[in-house]
Amino acid sequence: MTTAEAPTSSPTETETPLALLFVDLDGELATTRRMLERVPDGKDDFRPHAKSRSLGDLATHIAQLPGFGILMLTQDEYDGARGLPQPHANDNAARLKMFDDVSAQLKGLLEELTWDHARSPWTLKVRDQIVLQEPRAKLIRTVIITHSAHHLAQLGMYLRLLDLSVPSSYGPTADEGLPPA
Fold first, then answer.
1. 3-class secondary structure, 87
2. I want to staple 179 with a disulfide (CB 3.0 to 4.6 A). Which of 6, 58, 155, 168 is the partner?
3. Prediction pTM value
4. φ, ψ at 176 (rounded to 5°)
5. How far apart are CA 138 and CA 113, in angstroms?
6. What SS3 class is residue 171?
7. Phi, psi for residue 52 in degrees, rounded to 5
């Protein structure tokens, strides 16, 4: 490449953090919603094992996870000793509404995210001890994408054990073909 052909700007100068770091966000949120839609009312107490969360607790946790991304975007640190708010949903319609609300708010905040804010540190403390301190965008990806995928796998197993249809997520399931494009 000659000097005349060299790029004049880096992707971080021309792309927004949302476009570059969270290109898969819409797909992840759609997959999460499809999984949550399958959670049946009246089965919130189901546990596949005594050490497992109940179906209601797991589904509610998944529904509110985008809210943790909101926390990371609107606060510079959080003291884990306070515990996270534990929202309660009386039925799956309430969980879906919770998920839709926090997902829309998260997406709006990510649309406004600047590179400086994305790179700035976010800190998790327990009392005065720093437990975790990483660039904000890295932690949001970990919580919203990776951590959510872990729980979606759990939810898929719960649905299967309840003999319910498991939607396609990261590939086809025995119940459905490929996930929607």
1. coil
2. 168
3. 0.87
4. -140, 160
5. 13
6. coil
7. -85, 155
Phi first, then psi: give them for residue 75, nearest 5 degrees.
-130, 150
The answer to whether 156 touches 171, Cβ cutoff 8 Å, is: no
Residue-wise DSSP of 37-65: HTPPTT-TT--SSTTSPPHHHHHHHHHHH
Ordered alpha helix ranges (H), the chain:
11-14, 17-21, 25-37, 55-74, 92-112, 115-119, 136-141, 148-161
**Average pLDDT of the chain?**
90
- What is the CB-side half-sphere exposure of residue 167 using CA atoms within 13 A? 15
Residue-wise pLDDT for 48-91, tens only, equals 999 999 999 999 999 999 999 999 999 999 998 887 777 888 89
Unique residue bearing structure tokens 């927004």: 16
Each residue's pLDDT tens digit, 111-137: 999 999 999 999 999 998 999 999 999
List, for residues 137-170, the tens digit of each pLDDT value: 999 999 888 999 999 999 999 999 999 999 988 8
Q: Is residue 60 within 8 Å of 88, Cβ to Cβ?
A: yes
